[in-house]
Amino acid sequence: MADDPIAVGVAMIQAREWFEAHEVLEVPWRAASGETKQALQALIQAAVSLEHLRRGNPRGAWGQWNKARAKMDQLPPVMCGVAIAAWRDALAAFYTDIDIDERSRRTVARQSMDGLPALPDVVTWPLPAVV
Which class is 5-112+119-124 in CATH? Predict the structure, then answer.
């Protein structure tokens, strides 16, 4: 695994080291093409969306999630050893549950988050399964 940057990057996502995973996965992403490149970019964007949310930036999370989801929608269910479709569905449910769209809108408008669901503990946020 230590020699495979994709496996290392995915392990970092699973460890909630989302920013670090993004850095590691950019190397194989630059060299990839076709669906592999798209899958790696989707993994990077999904990881970055979670990092933005952790850092209190729902607007950034929303933007990166929408980019990731659009790519994931076009991919086979499993790519790069990751259950892409299952993670996409889990992230979609998570972002719906916390109302990421409204959080993003209120952030831009500088409005209170009162009345929105509380963010669950980060240890419960969805992670990709390795297959």
Answer: mainly alpha
Q: Considering the entire predicted model, what is its pTM?
A: 0.94
For residue range 16-41, what is the model confidence (pLDDT) as tens digits? 999 999 999 999 999 999 999 999 99
Question: Would you state the torsion angle of the CA atoms of residues 69, 70, 72, 74, taken in this order, to the nearest 10 degrees?
Answer: 160
Using the 8-state DSSP alphabet, how is residue 116 labeled? S
Q: Report the DSSP beta bridge partners of residue 78.
A: 83
Q: Are 54 and 122 in contact (CB under 8 A)?
A: yes
Residues 95/86, Cβ–Cβ less than 8 Å? no
- The domains of the chain are located at 5-112+119-124
